[in-house]
Structure formats: C-alpha cells, structure tokens
Design goal:
Helix content is 36%, strand content 15%. It is α/β, with parallel strands linked by helices. It has a 7-stranded mixed β-sheet with strand order 1-9-8-5-4-2-3, sandwiched between helices. Strands 12-13-14 form a 3-stranded antiparallel β-sheet. A two-stranded antiparallel ribbon has the order 6-7. The longest helix is centred in the last third of the chain and has 19 residues. It is globular and about 65 Å long. Bound molecules: pyridoxal-5'-phosphate. The site of pyridoxal-5'-phosphate (PLP) has 14 residues, from helix 4 and helix 5.
Length: 361
C-alpha cells in the first residue's frame, strides 16, 4: 500500500546543495553569522518585504528571543490554538500566557482581547494559523490604546502578503519558522522580522549568550543559524515560486472535490496573498456521519496519514496543573474536530483525488 504522509520536505538536488556548501571548506566558517548566513539573510529580507530581519537556528528560539529582547514581563494575551512552541516560549521567557478564544478563521478573536487586559499585560501574541492572518489592524489599535507590544507567530505564514505588504511588516516582531515541515525550510531554522531597527542589538545579544565583545550584557541563549542550514535555505528559496505554485494546485484540487460536502468546513478564505501551507478540514460529526477521529482512522487504513493539528490545545499542558482549555470553547471545539490533510509541493494530484474519494466514500 502506498503511504502518504501529511507533509514531505522539499529538497534541492544533491548537486545543487553540494555546490552551495563547497565554499565552507575554503572559509572554514561553519557558524556564527558566516557569509552564507549573511547572503540568506539579505535574500529572505527581500523575499518577505521587510526592513529588519535576523536569522535563527529554529523558530522556537527566535520567538523566545523576541519576548526577551522586547523586555516583556507579566501577562501576554495569546491563543491556545497553536503549536506547543508559542506557549512554551512565553513561559520560558518568564511570562504568563493568558488565553483568548479564536474565531472562525482559527486566529485569535480580536473582539475578546480587551476584556482580558489587566495591569500586568505587556503584549499580545497572535498566531497566523494555517497561513490565515490575524486581524492585524484591530490588534494594533488595541495595542496602541493600552500601550502593549504586538508579536506574531508567523511560523505558518512565509510568503503571505496583506494589502501588498509582507505579513512580517505588521506588529512589533514576527517569527517565521524554517523547519523542514514548513513552506520554506533550512532543515531547522527561523527568523525574526521587526519594526524598530534599534532592536537588532538586543536580539543579537539574546541569540548569542548575551556576549557583547568583552562584556556580558544579559543572560542570553544560543540560537545562531549555521552555514549548512543557510545553504539549504539559499537552495530552497531559489525554487520557492515553483513550490508555491505546486502547493496551490494541490490546494485547489482539494477544494474542487470537497467544497459543498455535507459536514465538512473548509479553510475560510481571506483577502490575502496565500501561501497554501495547510489544508485543514473541520468535521461536523452530525452532518458528516463520522467524527474527526473516525475520518483519520478511515484514511489511515488506506495509508493516508492526516494530522490532528492543533491537537491538543497548548492550554491543556499538564504542567499548568489545571485544565485551562475550558475557558476557550471555540478553540477547544476546533482542536477536537479539525484535521489537516496531506499537502506538499510534490503531492500527486491523482493522490489528492484518491484521498478525496476516501473522504467522500
Ligand atoms: C513550527 C511552528 C513553531 C516552531 O518552529 P520551529 O522552527 O520548529 O522551532 C512555532 N509555532 C508554530 C505555530 C509552528 O507551526
């Protein structure tokens, strides 16, 4: 039986990657902001259409460094409908996550943020879920009114544009993940894009042990991207437009088959330049006949591995000691009923047809 995974990393040819890493044997510059790192940084900055950018060893540490570099303390209003990383970064940076429910497009509900603000709130941390974006204008208004910082976990949103601007240009800081499973990858990797150019020194300190020449300026971590990662990024960025076009074809094939199917709700469409990162389907058991878990089982029997994503909610982390998931009923419902179907650039359209036959059968 043919196995189809929910995702499959895009790879450059072996020769293309080797050509890119060849110079490392001459420079013997393996890490610590080397020449390949610097080239990738310039290219990603241009691609994302942002002013300021710094690269990281992974997206999670980038997000952690963003919270530290902004000097945030106290409470951060965030979403429970995300990957573990978002909450973990907040807690690891010494702050407390305060969970706000989400809306139909799976992003934080801007109408519920203000009632959660206390005298301890210092920031709003939204997540652009499945490549769908938060209401960046409404969130900025709230932040300005209450003097809060705005951070976006844009791990899913590489290449997304809103009103002609790269999504990384909104808010104070955005984090993009370049993990192997993401639309663009550097094996592991990530970046921060940020509005205030003077933040660069603080971000660099957090990324490199707090070392500033011969002085130690803070208790920083180690989150530098190495040259081998950067070389993979240079190769993958070269092919990003073809990759996105192939993803688009897969995405649209799913939609052709699945729109109008009773009991399935597809990803709400926004007025953005999409990146076709994920294909989530919300299953309404009553109308569809079986529930999300049942659908996953049915697909698995045929060798198709869909992913319950995001499940469980990050607010259900046992380390909290209490179950915080009840406070956000919509996020809880989505988490228990949504499934992401296989989606990657080289997924055959015939396989998409087959997957949709299983779903509809
Ligand atoms: C992938 C992901 C991260 C973490 O990124 P890494 O590069 O794997 O550390 C954070 N948030 C979300 C929403 C993600 O999907």
């Amino acid at each position: 039986m043919k196995m189809i995974n929910v995702t499959k990393s895009s790879m450059p040819s072996y020769e293309e990657y080797c050509a890119e890493i060849k110079s490392i044997w001459d420079t013997v510059h393996l890490t610590n902001m080397g020449p390949i790192h610097n080239t990738l940084k310039d290219r990603v900055r241009e691609y994302l259409g942002v002013q300021n950018i710094e690269l990281f060893v992974n997206g999670h540490l980038a997000l952690y460094c963003a919270i530290k570099a902004l000097g945030l303390t106290g409470e951060i209003i965030t979403t429970p409908f995300t990957f573990a990383s978002t909450t973990n970064a907040i807690v690891q940076a010494g702050c407390t996550p305060v969970y706000c429910d989400v809306k139909e497009d799976y992003t934080i509900d801007e109408n519920k943020i203000e009632s959660l603000i206390t005298d301890k709130t210092t920031a709003i941390l939204g997540v652009h879920v499945y490549g769908n974006i938060c209401n960046v204008e409404a969130i900025q208004k709230i932040a300005d009114k209450h003097n809060l910082k705005v951070i976006y976990d844009a791990a899913h949103a590489f290449g997304v544009e809103y009103q002609g601007r790269g999504i990384g240009a909104y808010g104070d800081v955005s984090m993009f993940s370049f993990h192997a499973t993401k639309v663009f990858h550097t094996i592991e990797g990530g970046c921060l894009t940020f509005k205030d150019g003077t933040l660069v020194q603080k971000i660099a300190l957090e990324r490199n042990f707090g070392v500033n020449g011969e002085s130690l300026d803070c208790f920083g971590t180690n989150a530098k991207m190495n040259e081998f990662q950067a070389a993979m990024g240079i190769c993958n960025l070269r092919h990003i437009d073809e990759e996105l076009a192939k993803r688009k074809a897969v995405f649209e094939r799913y939609t052709k088959h699945l729109q109008g199917v009773n009991g399935l709700k597809l990803l709400p469409k926004q007025d953005i330049k999409q990146n076709y990162a994920y294909y989530p389907v919300l299953v309404d058991e009553k109308a569809f006949g079986i529930n999300r878990d049942g659908l996953c089982e049915k697909l698995k029997e045929k060798g198709v591995f869909a992913r319950k994503y995001f499940y469980p909610l990050v607010s259900g982390n046992k380390a909290f000691g209490t179950d915080l998931t009840k406070a956000t009923p919509k996020a809880k419902y989505y988490s228990e009923n949504v499934v992401c179907l296989p989606l990657y650039a080289n997924l055959d359209l015939a396989d998409v047809d087959m997957i949709c036959e299983i779903i509809k059968g």
